[in-house]
Design goal:
mainly alpha
Length: about 240
């Protein structure tokens, strides 16, 4: 009976984590999506409209599950606010540069490839949190440089989506700056909530045990996102 109860508990935990992974993957697969009234606004907008673009930038980050999954992995084992600030700044610099340069420079990049790399960034951070690099390869990559590098791809992913709407050149620079500032504001808001949750979670007795499973799930989500986007890419080539 005891063995049966233990097996049931393990099965329930596995089912819960699997359900969370499936839900998160569904969200991640559409992490950059812009639809409905937001899409209609982007298609007809002309001239400098700082307020609306600031709002759209903040909204995208708060609902951008791929960005948040990566940030969640980045700050997972960061206990000092100074360290959090350094890593988040590296990410912000990266995605700000390619967001602005991608849209203003008209860079044409396949969105499936970029989103697959974004999925890879989630895999990387979860694998790093599990000490995978030291264990498997015996070496640790420069984590700050990696966050900056993947930040460049996250920004480029968003830039590719914005370019789909053929934004008006009238007021484009001001609008993209406002959008980017909104992204940073949304990132700070989302990060504040994540840090509050993490602070309480870390205070629990089972944090380390659950942390391993959480990063396994995070890595699984990253692999699923990569597969989803690569399948989309190869389907286009047929």
């Amino acid at each position: 009976m005891l063995v049966y109860n233990q097996a049931m508990r393990i099965s329930c935990k596995t089912a819960i984590w699997a359900g969370l992974a499936a839900f998160a993957f569904g969200a991640l697969a559409h992490g950059h999506g812009v639809a409905g009234q937001d899409a209609a606004f982007l298609q007809r907008s002309a001239g400098a409209q700082a307020g609306p673009f600031f709002y759209l930038g903040a909204k995208h980050m708060v609902t951008g599950y791929d960005h948040l999954a990566f940030l969640f992995g980045v700050i997972f084992f960061l206990y000092k606010m100074r360290d959090v600030a350094v890593y988040v700044t590296c990410f912000a610099i990266g995605h700000s540069v390619t967001l602005l340069a991608g849209v203003l420079g008209g860079w044409q990049v396949n969105p499936h490839v970029i989103d697959a790399i974004i999925g890879l960034s989630v895999v990387y951070k979860a694998f790093d949190n599990l000490d995978g690099f030291k264990t498997v390869f015996g070496a640790q990559p420069n984590t700050k440089a990696a966050v900056l590098l993947f930040g460049l791809f996250h920004g480029l992913g968003l830039a590719t989506k914005l370019q789909e709407f053929q934004l008006s050149a009238d007021g484009l620079v001001a609008n993209m700056i406002s959008f980017n500032v909104g992204v940073e504001a949304g990132q700070l808001a989302a990060l504040s909530i994540i840090l509050i949750v993490m602070r309480h979670w870390r205070a629990t007795a089972g944090f380390i045990r659950h942390a391993v499973m959480a990063n396994v799930v995070l890595m699984t989500i990253g692999f699923l996102l990569m597969g989803y986007q690569l399948a989309g890419y190869f389907t286009e080539q047929i």
